[in-house]
Amino acid sequence: MSDVAARPAPNLLANPWIKAGLIVAGLIAAAMLGARLDGSGTLYKIFIDPFDQMAAAPDLLAQTIWEGLVSGVLYALIALGFVLIFKASGVFNFAQGIMVVFAALTLVGLHEKGVPAWLAVILTLGVMFLLAVAIERVVLRPLVNQPDIILFMATFGITYFLIGFGESVFGGSPKQMIADQLYLPKGAIDLKILGGLVSLQKIDIAAAIIASVMIAVLALFFQYTRIGRALRAVADSHKAALSVGISLNQIWVIVWFTAGIVALITGIMWGARSDVSFALEIVALKALPVLILGGFTSIPGAIIGGLIIGIGEKIGEFYWGPLIGGGIESWLAYFIALGFLLFRPQGLFGDKIIERI
Amino acid sequence: MFYREAGQFKSTYAADMAVFPIRQDRIGLAIILLIAFIGIPLIGNDFFITSVMIPFLVFSLAAIGLNILTGYTGLISLGTAAFMGVGAYACYKLTTAFPGVNIIVLILVSGLFSAAIGVLFGLPSLRIKGFYLAVATLAAQFFLQWAFVRVPWLFNYNASGAIEVPQRLLFGIPVTGASASPETRYFVCLCLVIVMTWFASNLVHGKIGRSWMAVRDMDIAAELMGIKLLNAKLLAFAVSSFYAGVAGAMMIFLWYGGGEAADVFNIRLSFNILFMVIIGGLGSLIGSFFGAAFIASLPTIMKFGLPALGVPMSGATAEHVTFMLVGALIIIFLIVEPHGLARLWQIGKQKLRTWPFPY
Amino acid sequence: MASASVGQADTFPKLLLRNGRERGARVAFRHKDLGIWQSWNWAEVTEQVRGFARGLQNLGLKRGEKVAIVGYNRPRLYWAMAAAQWLGAVPVPVYADSVADEMAYVLDHAEAVFACVQDQEQVDKILSIAERLPGLRHMLYDEPRGLRDYDHGKLHAIDAVIASGREDLTASPEAAAALEREMLAGKGSDLGIILYTSGTTGRPKGVMLSHTNVITAAEIGCQFDGLNESDEIIAYLPIAWVGDHVFSYAQAIVAGFCVNCPEGPETVIDDRREVGTTYAFAPPRVFETMLTLTMVRMEDAGRLKRGMFHYFLGVAKQHGEKILNGESVPLGGRLLYGLGDILVYGPLRNRFGLTKIKVGYTAGEAIGPELFKFYRSIGVNLKQLYGQTEAGVYITMQPNGEIRADTVGRPAPLVEIRIDDNGEVLYRSPSIFGGYFKDPEKTAETMTADGYVRSGDAGFFDEEGHLKIIDRAKDVGKLNSGDLFPPKYIENKLKFYPNIKEVVAFGQGRDYATVALNIDLTAVGNWAERNNVVYASYQELAGHDLVYDMIAEHVDEVNRSLAAEPLMGGAQIKRFLILHKELDADDGELTRTQKVRRGFIAERYAALVNALYDGSQAADISTEVTFEDGRKGVISANVKVRDAKTYPVSAAERPVPARAAA
Amino acid sequence: MNAEPMNVSGSPLRDEGEVLLAVQNVSLRFGGVKAITDVSFDIRKGEVRAIIGPNGAGKTSMLNCINGFYQPQEGQISFKGQRRDRMKPHRAAAAGIARTFQNVALFKGMSTLDNIMTGRTLKMKRGFFWQALRHGPAMTEEIEHRRVVEDIIDFLQIEHIRKLPVGKLPYGLQKRVELGRALAMEPELLLLDEPMAGMNLEEKEDMCRFILDVNQQFGTTIALIEHDMGVVMDLSDRVVVLEYGRKIADGTPSEVKADQKVIDAYLGVAH
């Protein structure tokens, strides 16, 4: 232990989880008690009423959770792109969100120019591959061995460039995703459960399924292919990967291309739900709290983090948002993540932080 | 080439520790100040002063603030714009509540509010580091931005939701409001920026700056020197947010002259200021000025420069091309000199000092 | 002229007091220490020296006793000289890098009773020879580092001695008065200092100089170049050398200017730049090193910059000296030179730390004309002087406007010169020495009955009345052919090439002239790097064929120039070799002032010298060397010998003996 | 003596000097891994105490416990007779414990001078207001401490690198700067973690001299970890030997050298 020493985090009581749980439980109990006794009703509105509503209309709760689940899946998909790149190259790729928009825009733009839908998909994949190659050549290779923050800033540069490039080529106005041409289902399935009506959009179901399939494929890819194993090796140690005999440059191209594919699929799903525009950029930032929750290097973390954030912010917005003027969706996700972070600085699934002394 | 350092020796530690130990640098600084105080108001037209110089000064101050946090203390923040917003709204509330108090004082005091909020959002920095912290500061960005829209008390419940900048006088001359002349506003900005840069320079060159840099470079060893990490980090957050807050107040009161402030202090502004710091040079005050000049003037140059060169372009296209160019330039700069313009400046200066030798 | 301007102040302590009175607030000494230039003004220095003197008195120092002073240039060591002189004792500065044996000889011969030394190294050195110095009573040191645990019975910190002395003086007015009387008892004719000359042969000799001798010499220099209290000098040459003693001690006190002591020997260049000296003194070697470094560095510059640099050096060569001499230069040339001054000369002077230079002197050895002209062309008023310890330094000097690269100028003020029948330069002045300490025999050999001193150098006056030195009088020899053989003259011609560091010429009593030389590792190493010549050591580089080729070219050029001079044409170099090791003072091959000891080298490298004359193409040699840490070792090598081409002597007449000139 | 006798090797202890730091029955675990098991020893005022042992013996962990990076699960450490639980590194620093690291932990972006100046942080009292002015008292204070730092620079003979950023210095010099930074704290107890690791012979000799000088000139108590047995034998007054987190010997260098358990431990790892 004399060479590499793990520095344990300062212990909050014996186990931080227990302590946190006790505190939260105590607070809730106190709040509920207070709410019952409070005359003005403010505490009641915060601590009792939302739960009453949930119990009173379980169908609404189910609907809200579903909505959250779906946006959570999309967050998770963006986060997945982040994780792929971070694992393999240590780059915090801020441009992942914009890659989603850019991929979707390219697809729609090509179709608008008369390219058949499926061909457009293939061409878009080609564009994403070229983008991966270009990024590796122009950005990553010259910046190899620079500090993380420099690479992080470089992805900002990529973001700006892609925004400008995308808008110059395809124009800045929002566009419709070519959902029909891609045989994506439309309409909704209404379920009569819990004493009410829960409406599930077919596209959302499709999104969930496609996302699951993609994650499964990625898992298989990492587990069973030579390149996949090399990628995992890279995540552990750059030297190890080199000894496997795959050049770092190739790996970066592959990883960025993979992230590009994920971005395209995310873009299609997201575009089908709303429309394709650069406003998505801000929404894509939501992937960041997801990453905090899930840890920067964990794929399951990204998925579970995405779901927690998605569901959490929908429920928060629906039940508590009106109390303080609504629109809290824009920041709630970050606070949820921050709350988790204070107890697990490395995220839910992140590697334990080890400090060498 | 212009440096004649022979004969410039230090016989006291005070002289040795001066910020500008070389006489030629002091002369250069004096010339720059002369240009700023006399040359620019004489030569520059209103457009130049309002669209180039004042934004440059405001951004410089904000960049200095962020540089203290990110460049000197090593904590990345993506919430600078929000802290600027706190300054702007605080100043608005203050000047409404105390219309008789000097506006300059209020601008500075509003920085204190920003500092307090900054400390609050800096609290997690003890436990979380690096990118995790960057994301945490996004919470501040989005929450505060939300608050600027949703908390009507902040904008005095007026219907437009905008800050209305009242007219305030300094020595009988209108400094804010519609009738304040660009020159007046420019002078006020200039003086504030110079004084605050001086303070920042004092801080980073002394014990406090050393503790910040120690925390940045090797926090474990810093702790061993008796530096309390939380205190050092929170102080950095406080000072950084103070600078951002003052810059925000200046932005609304001395530059925009009011308006939909919530839209102004958006995440993109945060990013832009981060760019300024990185392109300018982390851990360099002069770099903050370079970065601000570069990022703030680039869109203006694109907008007015390209048509002037005979490149016809619609407004929208120009904007798109600007985006592309900014993106490309950021990448190019990072590749050419990851340590920013300040390092280039330093290298250039070193070349001049060793001239005609290459080293 | 001698003491007129100084009035009653005929000793250094008196002059010091005058400075304390008249310019008390002006800075007198600076020392780069602990990161900044620690400064003392004349009033403070006077007080320090007064306290120091009292401290020494308390330790028992008496009039006429000798105080050895050992170390690099440190204010407190200069003060030690003044403090000793205050009491009428005689300071004896000793070369700090002397090996223990040399030091033992000097300290013993000088009968030193006190030693003021710089640091632990010197303390240890003297302690190691303590049994040979029974007369040594106390040792004082400047830097306390590492000396804490030493027995302080006979060892004292200078600061402590000064402090106790000052305390004493404040406490007791009688003591102060007594000290004052002691000082006033000193006269100008008293023995002021003994400077040991390293001497090319034999043991060092102690040159005795009175206060008047040194003060007169200092005044000559100050008046000649208009030095005053606003000047700055950097003291970095050995304090035991007459040059440093006159320039950094005597003239500083006489004129009241400031002496700057560098942080250490390796930071002199930086420290000189910081201080920006107005008055400089350096042996040609220092100027040569600076120029070599310049040229080497410029080789690494970009093409454009290099081109510009060389272009403007060309401009300077054409116009620079004329402008400095105040001669007429066409307007175009002036403008071009002005541009060059901004772009090249100014920055160069700045890098050399010569921006503020009023006048610079080079002496000790002949300076290469190219080197000399280079500095003058970039606007440095560099001059030559010819001097000796026995003369209290000045013999001839170059007045402004009459500066030649190949002569050493006119006789200095108050100096009379005469050329002996055998060509030897003899001089007489109020500043010449009073004799060698405890060596009347040598004194008699050197001084003529009418008060002239034999310089030991051969020379002649040219038609303008400027003295030209050929060589040591006894060294100017003859080849078997009867042709003149001036070894130093040949050596200097070769040494003017930056690639060549040291040269030893042989030829006395031989059929022809040959040389053995050292290459300059910095310059040639740089050349090697550019030409992909791989080498691991000096020895390997020195033996490289390409290096030999390069040196052969230099030898060839020297032969051409020798052939062009009627007197010297017979002494062209027939054969040469590059020595396998660098000549080193630690091995006794160079003197402490870095002059070659020709005889010693001829003996030590006899095998090589034989090879130069027996026609063989190479020779084996092994040499014992002393490493820096004092260990000894042996290096052996096979050294190649090359033949050089000689040229017919161009001139009309066959050589006339040089000594006939005058 | 307030620590119990813990003479494992069976030789008599030198009963001189008061105990500055006492480690009593300390155990440290990381999860299930035991880094230190029930180790006791003391450090007396003014001595040079070496901690040696094969790789992974828990030497660095021991130092980390002493200056508060780790909280041992069992046992206690008292400094200057005061028992301290839950020590924080900055509090250890304030109490007078300084430290250097095995892998130089300098502030890479700062100059040598600034690095050593950080060592003075605790001794500088002027607050934010004066710092922001950097004139008057703040400057006086800064200069006062600069003087102290210059003495250290002079002592360690690093004048020529005073204003250079430490990141690009050769390793040996970095170690020297780190020692300087620790000295600037004017510690009572100086912990040196392999001060000579990775140095050449000459640098090692220099460092040895500095360590002895610090000990003698400033009277600083020194605890050092070192692999070079020659160095340990030359420098230290007493040696404690750890193996697999347990103490196997404690005594003067000659006693330890003769100890069979130590010989076995070292033969086992071939040093």
Structure write-up:
- The complex is a heterotetramer of chains A (about 350), B (about 350), C (about 650) and D (about 270).
- Chain A has helices spanning about 15-35, 40-45, 50-55, 60-90, 95-110, 115-140, 150-170, 200-225, 225-235, 240-245, 250-275, 280-285, 285-295, 300-320, 330-345, and strands at about 190-195, 195-200.
- Chain A is mainly alpha-helical.
- Chain A has a single domain (about 60-310), classed as Orthogonal Bundle (ABC transporter involved in vitamin B12 uptake, BtuC).
- Chain A has a two-stranded antiparallel ribbon with strand order 1-2.
- In chain A, a hairpin with a 2-residue loop joins strand 1 (about 190-195) and strand 2 (about 195-200).
- A two-stranded antiparallel sheet of chain B has the order 1-2.
- In chain B, helix 3 (about 45-70) packs antiparallel against helix 10 (about 230-255).
- Mean pLDDT of chain C is about 90; it is low at about 1-5 and about 650-660.
- In chain C, helix 1 packs antiparallel against helix 2 (about 40-60), helix 2 crosses helix 6 (about 160-170) and helix 12 packs across helix 13.
- In chain C, about 40% of the residues lie in helices and about 25% in strands.
- Chains A and B meet through helix 7, helix 13 and helix 15 of A and helix 6, helix 12 and helix 14 of B.
Strand order of the biggest β-sheet of chain C:
4-3-5-6-7
The CATH architecture classification of the largest domain in chain C is 3-Layer(aba) Sandwich
Instruction: Tell me the fraction of residues in β-strands of chain B, as a range.
Output: under 5%
Coarse shape of chain B: globular
**Averaged pLDDT of chain C, please?**
88
Q: Specify the oligomeric state.
A: heterotetramer
Unreliable residue stretches of chain C? 1-6, 651-662
Q: Mean of the pLDDT scores of chain B?
A: 88
CATH fold-level name of chain B: ABC transporter involved in vitamin B12 uptake, BtuC
Tell me the distance between the termini of chain C. Answer: 29 Å
Number of domains of chain C: 3
Sequence stretches where pLDDT stays below 50 over 5 or more residues of chain B:
none
What are its keywords?
heterotetramer; B: 359 residues; mainly alpha; ABC transporter involved in vitamin B12 uptake, BtuC; two-stranded antiparallel sheet; 72% helix; 2% strand; D: 271 residues; alpha/beta; Rossmann fold; 2 domains; six-stranded mixed beta sheet; four-stranded antiparallel beta sheet; 38% helix; disordered N terminus
Can you summarize this structure?
With 357 residues, chain A is mostly helical.
